[in-house]
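Dear colleagues,

As part of the handover before I leave the project, I'm documenting each prediction I ran so the next person doesn't have to rerun anything. This entry is a single chain, and its sequence is reproduced below.
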Amino acid sequence: MKKLLSVIALLTVVSFAVNAQGLKSKKGENYLPEKGDWSIGFNMDGVFSYVGNTFNGTSNNSAPSVDFLSNTTFVGKIYTSDKTATRYTANLGISSDKAGDVSTSSFDITAGYGKEWRKGKTRLQGFYGADALISAASSSSKNGSTTLYKSGMALGVGVNGFLGAEYFIFPKISLGAQYNYGIGFISQAKGEGTGPTESSSEFALGGVGVNGGSINVNLHF
């Protein structure tokens, strides 16, 4: 939450400091999204961490990676008006590893649909809304052809509310921050082999993603 407030405060200062508060560039391009525009968003937390570590001498200075919004989930938007958008979320994660005769694998898939509303008359824009999400995941481990562990399928449903602000630094390109808070239910089927094999269920309420917030860059077309 502190990260979100800091970024929003920074965006507010920038919005007053920049002379060009007009909504068109010198070439006549619109800064803000319009009805019919598409958008994709990326999480920039890794880039900010890398820059911060470079200046403070932290050893963890590996090159940053760019993750998708909402806990590594792709978020695309279609603007149904200048102030509203329909959101589509999707994520497919597949991993496989082998050490000697032991191999492990896992997969997870997430899909969602939501609505977004926007406020603001300058290049500093606020936004809020909610996404409905469904997910599925499983994992397994084998020694040759022998199954050591196979998880039951985990199925989840949830609703994620979000609130944030962004500043359009260039026409149709914005930098902003988003805070997430949601509810979800996950049901885990019975597994096989060693490890936790009993079925289980879990209800969760709280932030989604690291600290429930993210720093994002959004591209509109």
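The radius of gyration is 21 Å. The first strand starts at residue 38 and ends at 43.

All the best with the project,
I.
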